């Protein structure tokens, strides 16, 4: 074996991980490119060349930056409520945060994946994952808004998603925490893990035209943890690769338990074969409960549906859909090069990077070069699948992206650096320090068939001394490197929203011309729309009062509202009559506990308000919209019941 003995490695890697925060790269002073300022400078009024979509971690949101400037363009609310967009406050957006547990107004968003056609980014949608209450969202890149959120059954933690197959046939997910399946009573002793806990990977079908998702099928696997994944491409199209840890199936992951094995696994999944088994009726329908929420840009409303069934294939019974490949020490990143031939596993606790060959994996399967089975699933011999190992690349390899010129760049958390290496001969070519402890990294198109190797961006976990101090917590940060030459050159630091994990960048040309500038009022089919001031009205139905309200620079209609009584539920259905780019209006009421609205031009949004006292409540527009913005206001009179 190329790596140290078990106990030694566990001891030394624990020490390395613990000391990570004090690990500073050397040669910090020389790292910045001499012409950095001109390379990152985008003149006022000029557009950036790339959009950079950055996961927001525990903020639950997705942020959008311009590159190379690092300018923050937008935060797109996905899994968390957001006052700036009224997301999760309006009656129209509330159902988007529904789950089988009820409303979950927060999540932990780790990964982004832009839709692809033939293995190249097509600029239509971006998928993101929720790592807490397992969900996948689809954001429409015409509106930069969340269009759909689907919950994943039989799962807990949804870390290894939302990576997609190379024609966006499926978004793929894998459970991070194995749990008892949904259809059995989960009230079992935790130490019955090996008997009762299962791992599931999910294939969520994506409609070619509308992008609508549905859970097509799941594959039941042993009770291990799936960490990350990536699709095959070109020759390996039709396959999907997952990194797995906790192959000990331990119910407590104190390091002694979870890292007992010298090697965990990469799992190779033949999903084309799985589709054949489905067609042949090998799937079993099992009862589950998951929410499917969609937003409609014509009615400007969302609907939430709870679904009750999913089709499951069993990896143990169908012996030729899943294969394990040993991978040293808690593999994290699982990345496939642009040719589809090389699969890079990154053992977080390993001091080397194993690179597997798709041809060799196929050969090993054909010739049964197995080292036995794991829970009924064939384990391919390590050497039989291995293309080779990058020796001594750095400490704590996490993630790899590709430059499309035969090279890979891997992030190293512990030694806090990016390392560029050649895929064929596995030689290290260059290294650049990160500030500090990089997690994910991104090259535009760097996980597709066609990377655009102009920049690499490092998303760092620790900021320390890079910016002015802001109390006990500092913003996480990104760093932009020019990789157009042989050497990686640092040109810019910029802070991020939340904690960035995976991020992607794409040429702005693919997206910028498709942007919706406003919603057409004549197409607005919200049930409570008021298309002009003449149709604005107040309608009472029992104790429910519907206010059909309009807004346009610079007034609301109606703006004096009387006849509201204690005990009423008041619904303000506010239609923005503007038909112009970038003229939203806001709507806030004194004392309203449902937050505020932000209404895009041509859109209707509804704020529910239950007055808590008799008296006068002013309301006003919260978004500065004209010289008379401050006059955009009104009063609501609340009388005793
Ligand atoms: S993970 Cu964050 S650094 Cu959740 Cu993709 Cu590796
Ligand atoms: Cu409308 Cu300010």
TrEMBL record:
GO terms for molecular function: nitrous-oxide reductase activity. The keyword Oxidoreductase applies. Pfam families: nos_propeller. InterPro entries: Cupredoxin, N2O_reductase_N, N2OR_C, Nitrous_oxide_Rdtase_Sec-dep, Nos_propeller, NosZ/Cyto_c_oxidase_sub2, WD40/YVTN_repeat-like_dom_sf. It is found in: Cell envelope. SUPFAM superfamilies: Cupredoxins (SSF49503), Nitrous oxide reductase, N-terminal domain (SSF50974). It comes from the Bacteria. Residues 1-28 form the signal peptide. CDD domains: N2OR_C (cd04223). Keywords: Copper, Metal-binding, Oxidoreductase, Signal. Its EC number is 1.7.2.4. NCBIfam families: nitrous_NosZ_Gp (TIGR04246). This is Sec-dependent nitrous-oxide reductase. It comes from Danxiaibacter flavus.
């Amino acid at each position: 074996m190329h790596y140290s003995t078990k106990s030694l490695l566990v001891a030394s890697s624990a020490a390395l991980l613990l000391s990570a925060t004090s690990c500073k790269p050397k040669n910090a002073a020389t790292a910045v490119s001499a012409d950095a300022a001109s390379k990152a400078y985008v003149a006022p009024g000029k557009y950036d060349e790339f959009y950079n979509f950055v996961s927001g971690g525990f903020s639950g949101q997705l942020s959008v930056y311009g590159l190379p400037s690092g300018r923050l363009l937008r935060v797109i609310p996905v899994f968390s409520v957001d006052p700036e967009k009224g997301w999760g406050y309006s009656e129209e957006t509330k159902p988007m945060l529904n789950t089988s547990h009820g409303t979950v107004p927060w999540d932990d968003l780790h990964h982004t994946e832009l839709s692809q056609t033939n293995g190249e980014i097509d600029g239509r949608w971006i998928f993101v994952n929720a790592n807490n209450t397992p969900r996948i969202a689809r954001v429409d890149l015409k509106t930069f808004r969340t269009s759909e959120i689907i919950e994943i059954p039989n799962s807990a933690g949804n870390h290894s998603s939302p990576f997609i197959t190379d024609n966006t046939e499926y978004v793929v997910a894998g459970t991070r925490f194995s749990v008892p399946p949904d259809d059995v009573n989960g009230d079992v002793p935790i130490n019955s893990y090996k008997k009762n806990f299962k791992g599931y990977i999910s294939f969520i079908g994506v409609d070619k035209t509308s992008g609508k998702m549905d859970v097509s099928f799941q594959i039941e696997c042993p009770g291990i943890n799936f960490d990350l994944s990536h699709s095959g491409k070109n020759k390996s199209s039709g396959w999907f690769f997952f990194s797995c840890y906790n192959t000990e199936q331990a119910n407590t992951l104190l390091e002694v338990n979870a890292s007992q094995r010298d090697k965990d696994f990469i799992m190779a999944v033949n999903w084309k074969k799985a589709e054949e088994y489905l067609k042949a009726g090998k799937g079993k329908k099992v009862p589950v409960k998951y929410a499917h929420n969609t937003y409609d840009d014509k009615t400007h409303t969302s609907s939430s549906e709870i679904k009750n069934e999913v089709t499951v294939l069993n990896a143990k019974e169908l012996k030729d859909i899943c294969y394990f490949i040993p991978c040293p020490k808690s593999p994290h990143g699982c990345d496939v090069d642009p040719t589809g031939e090389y699969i890079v596993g990154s053992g977080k606790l390993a001091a080397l990077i194993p690179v597997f060959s798709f041809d060799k994996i196929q050969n090993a399967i054909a010739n049964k070069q197995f080292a036995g089975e794991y829970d009924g699933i064939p384990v391919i011999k390590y050497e039989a699948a291995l293309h080779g190992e990058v020796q001594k690349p750095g400490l704590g390899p996490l993630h790899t992206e590709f430059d499309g010129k035969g090279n890979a760049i891997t992030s190293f958390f512990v030694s806090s650096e990016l390392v560029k290496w050649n895929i064929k001969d596995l030689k290290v070519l260059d290294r650049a320090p990160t500030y500090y402890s990089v997690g994910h990294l991104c090259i535009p198109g760097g996980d597709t068939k066609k990377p655009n190797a102009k920049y690499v961006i490092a998303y760092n976990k620790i900021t320390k001394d890079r910016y002015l101090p802001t109390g006990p917590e500092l913003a996480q940060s990104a760093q932009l490197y020019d990789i157009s030459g042989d050497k990686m050159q640092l040109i810019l630091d910029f802070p991020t929203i939340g904690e960035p994990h995976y991020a992607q960048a794409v040429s702005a040309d693919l997206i910028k011309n498709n942007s919706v500038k406003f919603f057409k009022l004549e197409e607005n089919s919200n049930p409570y729309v008021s298309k002009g001031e003449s149709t604005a009205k107040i309608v009472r139905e029992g104790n429910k009062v519907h206010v059909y309200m309009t807004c346009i620079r610079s007034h609301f209609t109606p703006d004096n509202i009387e006849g509201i009584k204690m005990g009423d539920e008041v619904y303000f259905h506010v239609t923005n009559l503007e038909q112009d780019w970038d003229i939203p209006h806001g709507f806030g009421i004194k004392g309203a506990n449902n937050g505020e609205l932000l209404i895009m031009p041509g859109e209707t949004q509804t704020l529910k308000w239950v007055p808590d006292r008799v008296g006068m409540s002013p309301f006003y527009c919260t978004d500065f919209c004209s010289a008379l913005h401050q006059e955009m206001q009104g009063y609501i009179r609340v009388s005793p019941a």
